[in-house]
Amino acid sequence: MTARALLEATDLVVARGGAPIVRGVSVALQAGEAVALVGPNAAGKSTLVRSLAGLLPLASGIVRLEGKPLAEWGRSALARAIALVTPEEGAPVLLSVQERVALGRYPHRGPFRPLTTADLEAVSNAMAQTGIAHLAHRPLSTLSSGERQLAALARSLAQQPRVLLLDEPAAHLDVGHQLQLFRILDEIRADGVAVLAVVHDLQRAAAWAGRMLLLEAGRLAAEGAPADVLGSEACARAFHVAIRGHAADGLRHSLYSFEEMR
Known about the structure:
By secondary structure, the protein is an alpha/beta fold. Helix content is 33%, strand content 27%. A hairpin with a 2-residue loop joins strand 9 and strand 10 (219-224).
């Protein structure tokens, strides 16, 4: 772990119903970094992400933001610093998209206070950045699942966090909206935000992330550059596949093929 980490977790153990889900995981996120969290189903990825956001009790270990334990941050200050986007984000379906996105300003203004000019500007910018400004006055109930996912991302952008955690952000998105999503995440990262996303598409994860974390059975099985992680025995073992990569003309990254192990 490095002292310059923006968000740092050390030896995290998280249990549910008495059973450990995350087992002794240590990770660190730097400002401006794009990190993909990958792993098979039931590896503990969602639990780890929620733990990093401070939403789950820890059996042991500690999470620090800017060197200070999350428990020592006030709730509003922590909510301003860390944003979480999940695929099952819930919001009253009668809310409009603009009202949904404006909820991201709650940590900045507190309860029962009207939106300020700065709040309205942040909401407008977030909708424009995610390409949903034309949906501003549409009720959430009229949106597709992909559009609702973009509204959830816009809410997190309106929050203006320093750390953005995303659990399966590409769920329900078609290929065009996936490309848009990861372009937006690149823009956020370029502004100095630490971005960690759970990504199921290993090819997409390798093309986007500068670093990859592989979780298997609640443990960190591999960490490093995407090519190194995908080429590791740990990755092949975790997914029960043979993974092969080859260079592609005109592309920055290798293309990968996956074959079931028999």
